């Protein structure tokens, strides 16, 4: 693959140097491999004076880069944890207003619709359950809910 010959003894010595200097004993061989690949790429450009020193220095730099990267990831994780999940101010202010408008909007539809909407939205009943309770068809419940669902959002937004 390359003209840089590295014997097993030299390789092991370099791994030891990197492990001691970076204190990343488990990653030392991976760091050396990364440095070796950089050396091969770098050798295609200007000459390297000390072949043994280059991979050690490059591995140390890679270790520093890895540590910086992991710190940056930790900072991002901490920042994401600190994000406020509280509602925005305009939501806090607008919610009571929308609630009043919704209550007022529920007074507008026909009495049967005023019965159906809370049964579905608050009690969680299905259309067929509402229909059987009120003695009407499921289709009638669907039509009244459709009208209410078109009317209420306009009403709560003040239109």
Architecture blueprint of SSEs:
Blueprint: H1 8-22, H2 28-43, H3 53-82, H4 89-107, H5 111-121, H6 127-134, H7 138-156
Helix pairs in contact: 1-2, 1-3, 2-3, 4-7, 5-7, 6-7
Walkthrough of the structure:
The mean pLDDT is 79. Helix content is 74%, strand content 0%. The protein is built from seven helices and no strands. It folds into two domains: 8-82, no CATH class; 89-156, Arc Repressor Mutant, subunit A. By secondary structure, it is an all-alpha fold.
Terminal Cα separation, in Å? Answer: 74 Å
Instruction: Count the DSSP helices.
Output: 7
What about the largest sheet?
none
Principal-axis shape equals rod-shaped
Order of helices and strands: HHHHHHH
> Runs with pLDDT <50, length 5+?
none
Structural class: mainly alpha
Strand content: under 5%
Gyration radius from CA atoms, angstroms: 35 Å
Tell me the helix content: over 70%
Record field, number of beta strands: 0
Instruction: Give the overall pLDDT as a whole number.
Output: 79
Offer a quick outline of the entry.
Helix content is 74%, strand content 0%. It is mostly helical and 159 residues long.
Give descriptors for this structure.
about 160 residues; mainly alpha; Arc Repressor Mutant, subunit A; 2 domains; 7 helices; about 75% helix; rod-shaped
